[in-house]
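Suppose a colleague, Dr. K., hands you the sequence of a protein chain of 187 amino acids and asks what its three-dimensional shape might be. Before reaching for any lab equipment, you can write down a predicted structure in token form. Begin with the sequence itself:
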Amino acid sequence: MVTDGNIAVDYFSPTMPEYYRLLETRALSKNHTPHEDLVEQLYTALELTGALGTYQVPIEPNEYGLKPDALCVYQGKVIFWEVDRGTEDYDTPKGIRGKLDRYLKMSKDNPKIRMYAGFTTVPQYDRFGKLKRSDITRAKGILKCINKYERADQFFVSTHAYTIRHAAEPAFSTYLNPMGIAIKDFR
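The predicted structure, expressed as tokens, is then:
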């Protein structure tokens, strides 16, 4: 298919895998590959549940200034996904609170569409490979931000590793369900 001109293949280095893509799809950036791999893991986990309707990766921010890592329809629910690597602070307009504010505004401006925003967290390491913050600690910090909004199950969080292993199960913490809830049970 590559030789026929139907798909393209990208090579970053001899030690990295080949990336195949449709011709009209932009190539992965070498600098963003680890994050894009996390987004692909999320897609795979959701697809394997058999409940994923559509899944896309937005290229440009929307009119609310949001550019989620992924957007999907899962079990009939519109979900915006943020794969959080801990690069944003919690309580500023440019951080997690700012994203939640923009998701809330978008939701209020579109009352006929029930929208959800989910965060998955990964551990953070320093440049020497030493753990700086665990994915669980980061998820707890995001849940603390989420709880300030008192939005039932509209905002949710889980660790990335747990999400990709248990996407169809009660893997997500929300304001109403801090001990875990499955997407199918969101209100």
